[in-house]
């Protein structure tokens, strides 16, 4: 990286970008192997109609040096002026290979104090950074072009007397907007005060902010909204408790039946185990009886 510790570097860049100053270009070069210092600056005009500043700036470029340049080019026409900042890396025709190799590396250090730019160019020949080419490249990259040519130049490209069309353009835009607005203006909002029409259905507002507290609101809505079962609210206010005796009775009967089945299964298992034990105990006695019968014979 290059050494960019000189405070004048940033001061020169800020001065060029200040609308209150006339500075239109400045050049930064090397002092020693890698230290960047301010070299020269000028104030000749650079805009869409005059390129004197380009000639002045190119006159300060040196063939055996690497120089980093910042230009201020005023674009647009008399309706709208917009300054554009151009950074140029100049590599003279007789610069050695080692110095050329540093340009790409040191360029990042230059951008740190130069700040935002609209266009970056690299050149080793003055024809690559001429006034017409810079202006054309900047114009191609602009988001809007207010200079339609009809009010500042003739069809042959020769400049003529200038008549501002700003007021006429503003009136035309205003008229077009009003015409468009007629078809898109939203009418007055109408609130339905009731009773509800067929197209409208009631909804549960429990849980939403209400004038009453949530507890009071739930007393009037929870009963008739529970489980999606709708029941009419009582006259004179009060709470409706939604119950389902049939469902509760069925659940109780199912639980009782399951318990009875469990008891029966346990009892059957116990009886089977007792029978198995009795069968095992009877087997030795039968063998002894057989032995006695054989002895008698």
Keywords:
single chain; 297 residues; alpha+beta; Severin; 3 domains; five-stranded mixed sheet
What does this structure look like?
The protein is α+β, with helices and mostly antiparallel strands and 297 residues long. It has three domains: 7-140, Severin (3-Layer(aba) Sandwich); 212-243, no CATH class; 251-297. The protein is built from seven helices and five strands. A five-stranded mixed β-sheet has the order 2-1-3-4-5, sandwiched between helices.
The span between the termini is 124 Å
Q: The biggest beta sheet, please?
A: 5 strands, mixed
CATH architecture of the largest domain: 3-Layer(aba) Sandwich
List the domain count as a whole number. Answer: 3
Say which CATH homologous superfamily of the largest domain is assigned: Severin
> Any idea what the radius of gyration is?
48 Å
Q: What does the overall shape look like?
A: elongated
Average pLDDT taken over every residue = 77
Order of helices and strands: HEEHEEHEHHHH
Q: Roughly how much helix do the residues carry, as a percent range? A: 40-55%
Helix count, DSSP H or I runs of 4 or more residues: 7
Which band does the percent of strand residues land in? 5-15%
CATH top level label of the largest domain: Alpha Beta
